[in-house]
Amino acid sequence: MHTIELIVPCYNEEECIKLFYERICEVFSSDRLKDYDFTITYIDDGSKDDTMGEVKNVVKTHEESLSSGKNSKGRIQYISLSRNFGKEAAMYAGLKKASGDYVCVLDADELPGDAVELRTRREGDYIMLSVGTKMIQDLFVDMKVPRHMRDDVYMATIGSEVLWIPDANGRERFTEKYGVSSLTKRVLLLEIDK
After folding, report:
1. Which of 7, 68, 154, 165 lies at a CB distance of 3.0 to 4.6 Å from 105, suitable for a disulfide?
2. Separation between Cα atoms, residue 14 and residue 101, nearest integer Å
3. Buried-exposed string 83-94: b where 16+ CB fall within 10 A, e elsewhere
């Protein structure tokens, strides 16, 4: 079973921690992800509220649900930084600790209503770039993806919005909307075996 590790930097997120955890448990209990395990790594970036207390409550809740058989998978862990170093430092701390087969950085307070899905393209898919929105079929032409390969390219999506897509040369494209920068090139590692 492959593990998807979610790196979750947190700063004053006490209201979001439990909701994030519940949503992730719901997503990973679906048939679609039955062959995947998950790890949530919360990184408390020196929060001034009770974020760390909420994280510890979620860890305890998850351990109890595993013991009782309510949950059969998943691992919750955390890193607590001594002060606020900034989001990039929190992400870096999480990425250094990461051991999942696939790693993704998500904000606890921006968890989408729809789950992040790994899939091939569909009609109407688009990606937000710094220059605006671009339809995936147009992006494939710009990226010089051969026509016969376009239906075999996997991408990370929320609904019709593409968050991440590899290009034909092995480079990756990320959406601008979620604040991915050159610092986060290793955020998503996706290997598809056919």
Report:
1. 7
2. 28
3. eebebeebbbbb
Domains contained in the chain, CATH given: 1-111 (3.90.550.10), 112-194 (no CATH)
Q: Position 174: which residue type?
A: F
Q: Give the C-alpha separation, 157 to 159, whole Å.
A: 6
Strand, helix or coil for residue 32: helix
CA of residue 55 relative to chain centroid, distance: 18
CA-closest candidate to residue 74, choices 149, 14, 160, 4: 4
Q: Which residues pair with 108 in a beta bridge?
A: none
Q: CA dihedral defined by 148, 149, 150, 155, rounded to 10 degrees?
A: 170
pLDDT tens, the chain, 194 aa long: 788 999 999 999 998 899 889 888 888 887 878 888 999 999 999 999 999 999 999 999 999 988 888 877 899 999 999 999 998 999 999 999 999 888 888 888 766 455 667 788 888 887 777 667 888 888 888 877 788 888 887 777 776 677 777 654 445 554 443 444 444 434 444 444 44
Is the backbone of residue 86 left (phi > 0), alpha (psi -120 to 50) or beta?
Answer: left
Owner of token pair 């092995």: 170
